[in-house]
TrEMBL record:
This is Serine/threonine protein phosphatase.
């Protein structure tokens, strides 16, 4: 079995990396400390990811306290672990998704705190950006397709943790997943973590859909078709909670409507009213302007 060098451990499958590729990977691993790096080789692209280098936003450090103080368990952040434990958690979660039949990046090498992965091609975010101007119908259909796949993830007893289109990709026409750093199911019931997935994903759907009145209900229906009852129940609970802070969000928005706040208002307005208006659609275009 081939080795990258002292302290790096064995390659998972020596046939996956040619000798000259091993040399290039080793050069990047020992010569820099970037958290995520792209390595373009003559015939393919690889990605190198290290654990423990990420600088967390200041809000994360107080998020757990706010969740307890406000009694909103959905806000509880994923536990921050030591680099070796973070690596083990992410590799295990990738394996769980793969075992359940979902596409994930192929790991070519993994040490205690770093991994080398094969490129998966464009992210869904990149694909959607290309489609939006040229083919808005296909753009929105892809948003719905991803929502359906997220429902299948939940039906398989999994949660993603950070379901953003930059962490999705297409393989053989199906939506695949990557970047499994966050694991909210470690600090809350699985159904609650899955409902949190839905809220986070609809921050994207409601703010980027070309035709939100049709696409948002269709995406929610696509997710719900495969989602377990526990996740749907927790989503109803979540929407009641976030609905109570919607007036405050709107008030803040009158002073300063940042992009994150606007997405939150749009997603919250849709999700809190969708059970009553799903058949008619819901107009998210005026989010943050009413009330």
């Amino acid at each position: 079995m081939a080795y990258l060098g002292e302290g790096f451990g064995p390659i998972i499958n020596g046939a996956e990396l040619a000798d000259h590729e091993i040399a290039e990977v080793l050069k990047v691993l020992v010569g820099s400390d970037g958290r995520v790096q792209c390595l373009d080789l003559p015939h393919r692209r690889l990605w190198i990811k290290r654990q423990g280098v990420k600088v967390l936003p200041p809000l994360v450090s107080i998020q757990g306290g706010l969740a307890a103080l406000l009694r909103i368990p959905f806000l509880t952040p994923s536990p921050q672990l030591a680099p070796e434990a973070m690596q083990a958690r992410e590799v295990a979660r990738m394996a769980a998704f793969a075992k359940a039949g979902f596409a994930v990046p192929r790991i070519l090498y993994a040490s205690k705190t770093a991994m080398v992965m094969a490129d998966v091609g464009p992210t869904l975010q990149q694909t959607l950006k290309e489609m939006r101007g040229d083919d808005p119908a296909r753009h929105d259909a892809l948003l719905i397709k991803a929502a359906r796949q997220l429902g299948r993830v939940h039906a398989a007893g999994l949660s993603h943790g950070r379901p953003h289109v930059r962490d999705f990709f297409l393989r053989d026409g199906e939506v695949g997943f990557m970047d499994f750093e966050e694991d909210p199911a470690a600090v809350m019931p699985l159904g609650m973590a899955q409902a949190r997935d839905v809220l986070l994903y609809f921050l994207i759907v409601t703010s980027t859909a070309a035709e939100p009145q049709a696409t948002c209900p269709a995406a929610l229906e696509a997710w719900s078709a495969g989602a377990p009852e526990a996740a749907r129940h927790q989503l109803r609970s979540l929407t009641r909670v976030i609905g109570r802070i919607l007036p405050l969000a709107r008030l803040i928005g009158r002073v300063h409507m940042g992009s994150d706040l606007r997405r939150f208002i749009m997603a919250t307005e849709f999700l809190t009213k969708a059970p009553l208006t799903a058949a008619e659609g819901w107009n998210t275009a005026k989010a943050g302007q009413d009330g």
